[in-house]
Amino acid sequence: MKKVIIIAIALVTFGLNAQEKRDDRLAMKKERLSKLNAEDLAQIQTKKMVLALDLSDAQQKKVAKLNLDNAKRRIEARKDREAAKEKNEKPSQEERLKRQNEMLDHKIATKREMKSILNEAQYEKWTTMTEKRHKMGKRKKALKRRKGHRAEKRHNDKD
């Protein structure tokens, strides 16, 4: 019985250490990406798309311009969120709705632009890629929320 308990404790300890290392790697990756400028982000994303979709030179130039515009937009939005977070300001319901509508309008415009740049097979593959990325992002967000909820629960249990 003692051996089983010791093995269980060892496995739990090992699992927690592995989780911490993974979290550290993700934090480091996020920090590295946040230091890149819009041009670098757009260039990396364009090259990945060239490899995945086998884009022609003309398509590559158009996609690079679109990716650059999107990267600039994302960086600007991140700066705005960070500035608001530093001031401990939370957006009002109206601001959130406005921001969400703008984001959705931009996604629609991007999708239309990509449809005009890519051929049917490339567009289908690009759509599949973006859907997978979106699902993975949702999964990560849900996991993050659960972790935060657990940590908050533990903190409240201590009180």
Report on the structure:
This protein has helices at residues 2-35, 38-53, 57-86, 93-117, 120-158. With 159 residues, the protein is mainly alpha-helical. The chain has a domain at 1-35. Helix 2 packs across helix 3 (57-86) and helix 3 packs antiparallel against helix 4 (93-117). The model has no long low-confidence stretch (mean pLDDT 83).
Which structural class matches the secondary elements? mainly alpha
Radius of gyration: 21 Å
Low-confidence stretches: none
Which geometry do the CA atoms define? extended
Q: What is the straight-line distance between the termini?
A: 34 Å
Quickly count the helices.
Answer: 5
Percentage of residues in DSSP E strands: under 5%
Strands, total number: 0
Order of helices and strands: HHHHH
Please describe the biggest sheet, giving its number of strands, its sense, and whether it closes into a barrel: none
- In helices, the fraction of residues equals over 70%
User: If you average the pLDDT, what whole number results?
Assistant: 83
Q: What distinguishing features does this structure have?
A:
5 helices; mainly alpha; extended
Short structural description:
By secondary structure, the protein is mainly alpha-helical.
